Amino acid sequence: MDPRVEKVLKMPLYQRVLLLLLILGVIAGGYAYFLYVPAQKELAKQQKNNKKVLVELQEKRRIANNLPRFKAEYEKMKKQLDLALNELPNESEIPNLLTSVAGLARDNGLEVVEFKPGKERTKGFYAEVPVSLKLKGNYHEMALFCEAVSNLARIVNVTNLDLGKPKMSDGVAQLSISNTVVTYRFVENPPAPKKKGRRK
C-alpha cells in the first residue's frame, strides 16, 4: 500500500473527516469558479438578450398589425403631396404661367406697362419666382385681376401692391399700379444649407 495512503488511514477520525471536507471544498470551489459562475453569467446575458428580442418582436407585431392603417396613411399623404406639387409649377411651366398672368391683366381691362421677371430665390424645397408688374387701369379692373389670379390652379400671389394717385381719363379714375406677382416652383434637389465659418 502507498505510504501516503497509510499515513492518511492512521490519522485520527476527525483529521480524516477534515481532510475529506477540504478535498470536497476544493472540488466544489473549482466547480463553482470554473463552471457554475460563468454559466450563471451567460444565462443572465441570454435572459437579457431574450427580453430585448421579445420587446423588438412585440414592436414589430404591433407595426405588422397596424400595417394596413400605415399604408392608408401613406397613400393619403402621398395624394396630399401630389396635390401640393400640382400647385407648384415646374421650371418649364414658369414662362407660360407668367405670360398667362400678364394675359389676365389685359383680359380684365388693365394696360401692362412693364413686365419684368425678377431673380429666383430658393427657399429650401421651393423657389420664389417674382415678376414686377406696372399696370394702368381703374380700381375695379385691378380687383378683377386679383380675383382671376386667385382662381389660377397654380399658387400665384400678388404682393407689394401700390396704387398711385388717380388721374381722370374719360370720366374714369385711372391708377398707375405697381405690384409684384410671385409664383413658386418645386426644387427637386435643394442646395445644402451653407455652414457659417468661424471667425479667426
Helix count equals 5
Structural class: alpha+beta
Biggest sheet, in brief? 6 strands, antiparallel
The gross shape turns out to be rod-shaped
The CATH topology of the largest domain turns out to be Alpha-Beta Plaits
Number of strands: 6
The overall pLDDT average reads 82
Tell me the quaternary state: single chain
Our Rg estimate from Cα atoms comes to 43 Å
**CATH superfamily placement of the largest domain:** Ribosomal protein S6/Translation elongation factor EF1B
- CATH architect. name of the largest domain: 2-Layer Sandwich
Query: What's the helical proportion of residues?
Result: 40-55%
Care to describe what's here?
With 200 residues, this protein is α+β, with helices and mostly antiparallel strands. It has two domains: 12-87; 93-186, Alpha-Beta Plaits. The protein is 54% helix and 24% strand. It is built from five helices and six strands; from the N terminus they run ααααβββαβββ. A hairpin with a 2-residue loop joins β5 (167-169) and β6 (172-186). The chain is rod-shaped. The model has no long low-confidence stretch (mean pLDDT 82). Residues 60-87 form a coiled coil. It holds the Pfam family PilO. It comes from Desulfuromonas acetoxidans (strain DSM 684 / 11070).
Labels describing this entry:
Alpha-Beta Plaits; 5 helices; 200 residues; six-stranded antiparallel beta sheet; alpha+beta; single chain
Give the secondary structure arrangement, pairings included.
Blueprint (H helix, E strand, L loop, with lengths): L2 H8 L2 H53 L1 H21 L6 H14 L3 E7 L3 E3 L2 E12 L1 H12 L5 E8 L3 E3 L2 E15 L14
